[in-house]
Amino acid sequence: MSARERILGRVRRALADVEPDDSPYERAIERSYVRAHGDLDAERTVGLLAENLADYRALVHRCTADELPCLIGRLLAERGSRTVLVPPGLDAGWLAETDVERVPDLAASTPDELDRVDSVVTGCAVAVAETGTIVLDGGPDQGRRRITLVPDHHVCVVRVPDQVVASVPQALERLTPTRPLTWISGPSATSDIELDRVEGVHGPRTLEVVLVGGVSHSPGGDGR
Amino acid sequence: MSGTFVGMPAFPEAARAAVGDQTLRGNLRHATHTIRAKRAKAVAEVSDWDQLREAGKRIKDHTLRHLDRYLVQLEERVTAAGGTVHWAADAEEANRIVAALVAETGESEVVKVKSMATQEIGLNEALEAEGVHAYETDLAELIVQLGKDRPSHILVPAIHRNRGEIRDIFRREMSEWGRPAPEGLTDTPAELAEAARVHLREKFLRAKVGVSGANFMIAETGTLVVVESEGNGRMCLTLPETLISVVGIEKILPTWRDLEVFLQTLPRSSTAERMNPYTSMWTGTTDEDGPRAFHLVLLDNGRTDTLADEVGRQALRCIRCSACLNVCPVYERAGGHAYGSVYPGPIGAILSPQLRGTASEIDASLPYASSLCGACYEVCPVAIDIPEVLVRLRERVVEGGPVVRDGNRVVLRPAKGHAAERAAMRAARWAFARPGALRAGQRLASRTRGLHPRTLPGPGRAWSATRDLPAVPAEPFRDWWQRTHGGEEAK
């Protein structure tokens, strides 16, 4: 008998005392928890996202679509980056104000090659305000999972308010489960030494999130 | 389970040694109290915590009650998505499968993301025997591996080590395994983490095989989920060409939507965060993104035996958050090693004896590694009634009875060490049925108070070695009642 048959047989025998129940799953589980905590409007939801991202030591910036190329150029310059990884479908305009060398996201690139790149700029699929999380789903403006992992500096652009949801349940509704998904809440961190939180172990040590809205939210354009 | 723990003394003996270790107690107290306070704050942020907890409990119970159906569905979806599913009835079979898969790649090293299941089956040791070196990449697991030590906490395996000890281990051992610790390494957490980053990065970048566990598997879609903080998980899951995940069969959730419950309760219960820094989800393989080959090894190793017990099966709801460890007064003092199992603390005290049976002395002692205070049940995000299962297991150990081992129904004999306890209980039964004898005995006990020893002689010695004997009152309660309320009885 195969291990498969043996295990399934054991499961069935172990459950011999359980009353058969064929009610549909949706009815079997009562879900009395809430879909979102609080009833925030779009602008306050974006504010909560910014607050929670910053709480987990992501650097948060806000700007309008017009200001975005300039801001990205500045972030890469401040960082002293000489190379930047670019997913295939990234809006070319976002990098219009920088002359940092573009490195395309290619399947053939080795991990060592990625390790030599200074920064990566991506979009995202959705962002979750309550938890301060951005979710990447490998879409054209996000690229392969590894490009937001190996370089030490990740700049992620979130379109607000369209890409922002309040809660985890709302985020799951928007995502396609069969795509490779990466949920990111702040930069890489560890609390393994005396429970002291240290940012930056194996993933990017710096995560900068740019919240891009249609209209200017603050006179300076960058409400850091 | 892992051979690492073979020969461990039973809990009372191991705990006595741990309680006497001042450094260990200091490290543990600091850690458990810190995380306990943080967790309470993180949970208080969520107004519907009780409803989430109840939903989590029901989802897991429902899954366990239809586990055969969901396992088959999961296998179908993973296979359809380009993965290969293997089934392993026990640790040996699982290790054999993984070793063969690694051998097929021709590689002699693998990178590992922390996984309770692979620790449980002793995979690292099994691979080593085949000439394959497994590198643990979680910072705490690295500390444990370099220190030739054993993990002592589910979430923070090196919780028993302070920063000074960690610096010494890094300085001494890193050069043996790869890139040495930097010159002049101090004991600040930031520097220690940086040393680990540099040491492990060379391994990540050249790794061809990754080994992981999983926090959840979604039957509906075939999706696996790994929740982590450091990014070592993402490294192991996406950089290698081959990914092998060893996952207990109880880790299934029926639907994608179910994640909305556990992605809210798990991070807050375990690391006291709104969300852990990284969560990876993958379904089979994806063209040109991540591993080209994905193998899922579904592990039984005592889980179906646990499922057969109608009280004990609730232990399989566990999502390994470790909240119960951090609130347990026994764990806080005895430490994780005393449990002699990869699953320490309250959950370990009910999970290990069920997965492994109670034949060994350590496993028979684990149901007693508790004060039954109930704090573990209060914090459990899937409402496992740990005290209830502990009492059930104590009954099994003392009285014996029918259990399932390796899929077969067997009748357990009463544990040998408990003959005196059974004799005492029989004597009590006899005395309580005879009021005259009880009264005479109580009076005798009161009058001889001054002569009572502080510890019991003979077979009772072991019992009184870990407890204070109750003081016998100067006068039996019944006599006192007669004397002071004697006339009221008729009212």
Automatic annotation (TrEMBL), chain A:
Q: Which residues form a coiled coil?
A: none
Q: InterPro entries, per this entry?
A: FTHF_cligase-like_sf, LUD_dom, NagB/RpiA_transferase-like
SUPFAM superfamilies, per the entry: NagB/RpiA/CoA transferase-like (SSF100950)
LUD domain ranges (all copies): 106-212
The record's Gene3D superfamilies line, in alphabetical order, gives:
NagB/RpiA/CoA transferase-like
A Pfam family of the record is LUD_dom
Q: Which PANTHER family match?
A: LACTATE UTILIZATION PROTEIN C
Name the record gives this protein: Lactate utilization protein C
The species this protein was found in: Streptomyces griseoviridis
UniProtKB/TrEMBL annotation, chain B:
The record's section on PROSITE patterns has: 4FE4S_FER_1
Where does the record place the 4Fe-4S ferredoxin-type domain?
315-384
All copies of the LUD domain together span 73-298
Which branch of life, at top level? Bacteria
| TM segment ranges | none
A molecular function (GO) held by this record is:
4 iron, 4 sulfur cluster binding
Keyword Cytoplasm assigned to the entry: answer is no
Q: Ranges for the Lactate utilization protein B C-terminal domain?
A: 392-483
Biological processes, Gene Ontology terms: lactate metabolic process
InterPro entries in UniProt: 4Fe4S_Fe-S-bd, 4Fe4S_Fe_S_CS, FTHF_cligase-like_sf, Helical_ferredxn, LUD_dom, LutB/LldF, LutB_C, NagB/RpiA_transferase-like
Q: Which residues form a coiled coil?
A: none
Task: Give the matching PANTHER family.
Answer: LACTATE UTILIZATION PROTEIN B
UniProt-recorded name of the protein = Iron-sulfur cluster-binding protein
- The organism encoding this protein is Streptomyces griseoviridis
